[in-house]
Design goal:
The protein is α/β, with parallel strands linked by helices and about 400 residues long. The protein is built from 15 helices and 14 strands. The chain has helices at about 65-75, 110-115, 125-140, 160, 170-175, 185-195, 250-255, 265-270, 275-280, 285-295, 295-320, 330-335, 340-345, 355-360, 385-395; strands at about 5-10, 15-20, 25-35, 40-45, 55-60, 85-95, 105, 145-150, 205-210, 215-220, 225-230, 325-330, 370, 380. Helix 6 packs across helix 15, helix 10 (about 285-295) packs across helix 11 (about 295-320) and helix 11 packs across helix 13 (about 340-345). The chain is globular and about 55 Å long.
Length: about 400
């Protein structure tokens, strides 16, 4: 029986991939093709199953078709070619599925058309995702291509959480509502946290904090998302590496009327020149912490603003859930920045949230608790695995029939 799943995450100028065997959930290979369309394109490939050394090569990769061809060549060099009968399906990360796609979906012409229709609300992501799907389909037209949507996990939000308080007819006409993102990560981490606690997902309420360069929070009640911080786009919510997160909408009007800025200039400001990089010039939390240790007041203020927003969302989602069993930190910052975890929980002992300094400071690769023994609310570090989540959903839908 075919048991392998190839997972593709196609960005505007990059393709990330992993090949997994669902018999034992093992990684056979992983890689990245970046700077597509440039003369200095980079192909990085790691043959995970054989334990071989990572390989890198540079040179022009003209487009996504060439990127996937380069990926196929690297896989074939390890005896894992895309022509293998063991390959059951290809799973694709698709950022925006709107309200139409609430679960993983086998791609056909109607699905492609709907993803394309959603481009106005995901102009940076959906076009690249579509390119990846079409290119992979051309390589293996006989295989199921499965779209797994970032927004799907959040479609269980009640209307009271998903609706903005604007004119309802206008919102409906332009599909304006809160969709949420990082859904594959929030789904995986909430379930993995329940397992860490020795409970079933339906018995656990979790606040998940996905803290990377992009950052989002979610309130998960019994395995279902009931609120999340990102909205119509990934701009809303927490302070991020380069994105502002929540701002008064009138800031945009003010910058237009008083600052003379165009809509495109404001879009660039809020998405690429704000957040941590806008506050202190750095979006790498490690560098910000180094600057703080050296007495840099600008970096310290940026960190404090980041933590203040994070703490507000923890409190808000505690109120939404009513009962919280765990707060789970994940993604690059959440998994590795002990100072962020400590600061985010500081002062919340009245809510049952505390950090054990020794546990929090210890390094570890797997899911672990960083709260004291017997704490009323568990504080956990749970490494995310979005590729495994995509592979699991893809195989459950399409793989077992091959």
């Amino acid at each position: 029986m075919s048991t392998r799943v190839l997972v593709l995450n196609s960005g505007s100028s990059s393709v990330k991939y992993q090949l997994l065997d669902m018999r034992d959930r093992g990684r056979l290979a992983a890689g990245l093709v970046e700077r597509i369309g440039e003369r200095t394109s980079l192909v990085r490939h790691t043959p995970s199953a054989s334990g071989g050394a990572p390989r890198e090569r540079t040179g022009p990769v003209a487009d996504h078709a060439a990127a996937l061809k380069a990926m196929a060549e690297e896989l074939a060099a390890d005896g894992l070619g895309l022509d293998s009968p063991e390959l059951a399906a290809i799973g694709h990360r698709v950022v925006h599925g709107g309200m139409h796609f609430t679960e993983p979906t086998v791609v056909d012409d109607a699905v492609l058309a709907e993803i394309e229709r959603l481009i106005p609300v995901a102009p940076l992501h959906n076009p690249a995702n579509l390119t990846g799907i079409r290119t992979a389909t051309a390589l293996r037209p006989d295989l199921p291509q499965v779209a797994v949507f970032d927004t799907a996990f959040h479609t269980t939000m009640p209307e009271s959480a998903a609706r903005y308080a604007i004119d309802a007819a206008t919102a409906d006409e332009h599909r304006i509502r809160r969709y949420g993102f990082h859904g594959t990560s929030h789904a995986y981490v909430s379930r993995r946290t329940a397992r860490l606690l020795g409970k079933a997902p339906e018995d656990v309420n979790v606040i998940v904090l996905h803290l990377g360069n992009g950052a989002s929070a979610s309130a998960v009640r019994g395995g279902r998302c009931v609120d999340t911080s990102m909205g119509l786009t990934p701009l809303e919510g927490l302070v991020m590496g380069t994105r502002s997160g929540d701002v008064d909408p009138a800031v945009i009007f003010h910058l237009t009327r008083v600052g003379g800025m165009s809509v495109d200039e404001i879009d660039t400001l809020l998405n690429k020149k704000s957040g941590l990089v806008g506050l202190c010039g750095d979006n790498d939390m490690r560098e910000i912490r180094r600057r703080i240790d050296a007495g840099d007041e600008q970096a310290e203020l940026a960190f404090d603003i980041y933590i203040h927003r994070l703490k507000k969302y923890i409190g808000a989602y505690y109120a939404v859930l009513g009962r919280v069993d765990a707060v789970a930190f994940t993604a690059g910052v959440g998994e590795n920045a002990a100072e962020v975890r400590e600061a985010a929980v500081a002062g919340l002992s009245g809510l049952g949230l505390e950090i054990d300094a020794g546990r929090n400071g210890a390094r570890g690769d797997g899911p672990r608790l960083v709260s004291p023994e017997g704490a009323r609310v568990a504080v956990a570090v749970v490494p995310t695995d979005e590729e495994m989540e995509i592979a699991t959903q893809t195989y459950a839908l399409a793989g077992k029939d091959n």
